[in-house]
Every structure is written in structure tokens, then in C-alpha cells.
Amino acid sequence: MPRLDKLAKLTSKPMREKPPFRSEGDQLVEFLDELQRDNAIKEISGWDTGFANLSRAFDGILPGLHLLIGPPACGKTAFAKQLLDQVAKHNARPGIFFTFAETKSELRIKTLARISEMESREIRRGSAYLLHWYGVPKAHYATADQLQPSWEKLRRIAEDAKGWLDLIYIIECERNTDVQLIESHIRGLQAATNTAQTMVVIDDCQRLREMNQALAARLPIIVEQLQALAANLKLPLLAVWPYLGGRAEISPQAWADEVASADVIMFMEKDLERTKKLTEPNQAITLHIVKNRGGEKGNLAFDFFPAFAKFVEVEA
Model-level pTM? Predict the structure, then answer.
């Protein structure tokens, strides 16, 4: 039988603690088991964008900062909202759209116009206008069942879309909105939906905080903050930045050097030659993917229909 002093020495020996981190070799078997469990064949690694060519170029929407740059009036906001809606619809993932310039009503009208193929100006004018526009005298109806086909169509399509619209959240930002407040809203949504897998869009992200610097000097600062936010929360974040000119013309490819910390950089511009073949005010748009850590670079062609706030992929 061991003596008491020997027992004391044995019991006083500290227990061996696990190291605070694990090597790749230690975790490799678990990772292989994970891959084996997820044995479905995938065409893309990330989330479906709803645009076939864009999904292939991106290899799907993956976590990280996606920066969309373009001049005014080329449809950046409409594209960002359509992309968010399509990600929610095709992947059943919640999405949150932060807006500084457009109201919730305007963004809702964009969505309704796109999915109903009714012009936004018609929807904006309301049910009475639609009844008159489609050759029916203006009237007041007590219930939706009494409405004529034009308004019925809009309501029916909206109701059919409710499943994925329930995943979309719009937040109107104040002048004092900063990255910390954006993060707080995102975490609140993740808690409410009980999922960390969220798509985020920040429109007009240059307004995130008031700074004394010029717009160009502000760009790398805000991009770095947003890239850190996307990395910390492990989610895809699409930030929209306006290119207002004011200095020597920058080629689309040069933006990769201007803002090195973004994971994906897209530059949107009008294709003037192809636009001549379209009916006004429709526009031909080229989306230059000038940086893409998870996929391919290249140029994608779209037709933009402003009346419906709708982008359609076309073959270049």
C-alpha cells in the first residue's frame, strides 16, 4: 500500500489539459466524414444566385464581401434587390437589405413590378389607377375578391411569393448608421430566424458614416470594415458603391487594385452599342467581375428593364 506522502504526490500532479487548438491532421478524419455525409452532387459550392451564368462564375454565393461598383442610373439598386430576392427564393435563406436612399415602399414596388411584370408606375398609382388603366371605370370595392383582373393578378402573385418574401427584411438606415449598428441588426435577425446563414445587402454603403475624407479616400476604409464584418459573421455581404467620376477614368479591372480587401469586385456599366438595339428606356449592361477569390473573372451580359426593375441574363 502506497504511503500517504506518495499519494499526495500522485494526487497533486496536474491533469493533462487539451491544447487550445487542433492541428489539421487531428481534424482531417472528421472533415472527410463531413464530406461523405454531404454526398449530393453539386454544380456550385455556394448559394444559387438565380442567374445561371453568375452562379457559375461565382461558384455560387459564398461568405465574404462582394463589392458592386457602378455609375448612377445603371440599375445597381435594382440588381442588388433582385439578387437578394433570388438567393432567398432559390436557397430558402433569410436576407436583409439596408437602404439609405430608397424607402421600403419603393423597394417593395420594385419587387412587385419584377415578379408581376406590371410596370412600377402602375403599381405606384394604386388599385384605382390600375382598374382605370386596364379599361375598367374607377370604383371602390369592399373586398379583394371584387377587384378586377389587373389588381387581382398583383395580389395573387404577391401571395404566391409570400413563402420567400417572408425571408426578406428591409431596414431604412439613418444618417448615423455605422458598421456596428449594421452588425447589431444582422445578429438580431440571425437570432430571430435561428440561423447564421444570412445574405446581407448594403445599398449606398458610402453613407455608412460621416467622414471628412473625399469619397475615393473613404472607399478602402469602409470596404475594410465590411470585409471584416463579413469574415467575422461568416456570411455573404453585397455592398453597393457609386462611381461618380471626378477623376481620371478607371478601367473596370483597375478596381481590384483600388480596393484589395474585397473578396469579389464587380463593376457595372452600360453597353452603349448593344443598348441601341433595345427599346428605350431599356439598357444593355455589362457586369465586369474583376476580382473573384472563389471563382472566375469575366464579363457577363444583362438586359435591364427599368420599368420592371428587372435584370435578365443574356449571352454576350
Answer: 0.81
